[in-house]
Amino acid sequence: MDASIKNLIQLAAKQLTQAKHAIALTGAGVSTESGIPDFRGPEGVWTKNPEAERRTYEIYPKFVRDPTAYWREMLTEPLTFFTDMEKAQPNPGHFALARLDQVGILKSTITQNIDGLHDKAGSKNLFEYHGSLLKMRCPVCNARYGRDRFNLEHLLKTNELPPLCTKCGNALKSDVVYFGEPIPQDVAEHSYREAQQCDVMLVCGTSAVVYPFASLPIIAAGGTFEDGIPIRYGREAATIIEINGEPTSLTREHVSSYLIAGKTGELLPMLADAVDKMTAARV
After folding, report:
1. Domains of the chain from N-terminus onward
2. pTM for the whole thing?
3. To bridge 220 with a disulfide, which of 85, 114, 161, 238 should be the other Cys (CB 3.0-4.6 Å)?
4. Residue 220 backbone dihedrals phi, psi, to 5 degrees
């Protein structure tokens, strides 16, 4: 491996061990090594299957109009890329972030991904910005339930759909945030506070171009928004460590402090190992 990459790994490990409040943001690039394709790339799900993209635009309006019809379609005509995604397993990048979480280096991980792989890997302080395929959510009170909490096939067979929230009685939907659906308020508020509070942010496997998630690195870098346009002023900037396969808009616009270029599944375990060695040397 290039010596400059090794030096950047050591620098990042030092900054993480010295941080008071380090967090991680993750995107689709963290999960591609688990066999999950992105959506709009050359081999993306929607690039290959525009019909699947069209259907995703219709899901949330259907839930709002008729939760029973929404659930019946979800159970009898599931989108194949969702069912494939549910079978995926975490890769070394997910496990490395979970290690940093479990030893208290990372105070939280905020992910765009809906695949539930951070959860499977053992990250505890996890906030799934766009929801999770493995959960259901009440859009009224934001209560969340594991998919196995309800026997959905039985409810379908007995015409008892939709499943109902046990806290407020409203219809549940998949926790996934679909087109046209607002980001759940609890996750949005927590993520904003974490971006404001952090002094080190890992940005892993995302080019951060989908808003409002893309606003989080800008906020952490000391920026704010004026008429919807990001500008840089305000509080002292956090250190933004970008771990991506190639430069992104965060790199080009100098939002990130530096880029460690490569596969997250290779670089994140190296980073976790370096953190382990540094913290062990201090004991």
Report:
1. 1-36+89-131+184-283 (3.40.50.1220), 42-87+135-174 (3.30.1600)
2. 0.91
3. 238
4. -65, -30
